[in-house]
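Write out the 3D structure for:
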Amino acid sequence: MTTATPTQRNLALFDLDHTLLAGDSDFEWPRFLIKRGILDAAQYDERNSYFYRQYQNGTLDMQEYLAFILAPLTRFSRAQLDELHADYLENHIKPLIPNKARQRLAAHAAEGDQIVIITATNRFITGPIARDLGVEHLIAIELEEDADGNFTGRPTGVLSFKEGKITRIEQWLAERGESWDSYGTSFFYSDSHNDLPLMKLVDKPVAVDPDDKLRAHAEAHGWPVISLRD
């Protein structure tokens, strides 16, 4: 979509769940809370799996899902949530980060590329994960806060999901005084057919351990299909 010049750096976009992670951070969070005895397994595990199947099928009602997944955040202060997340990251998420994912990020960094994680999971969950991966720029679902800085259980702004990812990355570029043309080559790594709108827009889409729908589309259009699993 752009013509590179010698001075332009590239833009490397990465999905997070099932792409840089060998799992889904949004799916794992309730499971972590269940393990800690905070949520009831019978109530949440089945519902969590129901929404995950919808996501895989491309039929997810994002507003309904967010009402479910964000509700537990309203039960705790930000300090309590940060303490929980530290445990979650160390013991639940870090084991899901493949070495190959870190190596792919490092390869783009070595080339001087601008790296951005763009995910349909909320910023509370994904912010510390992005930092652990060494990625400064994160586009995620933003969460509404009350006057005390605690979460209300509602999202805010454009959801970074499906076509919303295009809107959000273009907003991010505009806020920086940039556009797609500011970069030489644009990459987007993803595992999910839900990301096809953005994958079709970039110069170099890369299917990472893709679901069946994305794999079929990638193979039909000659896109690279790779694995970042160790």
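The two ends are 32 Å apart (CA to CA).
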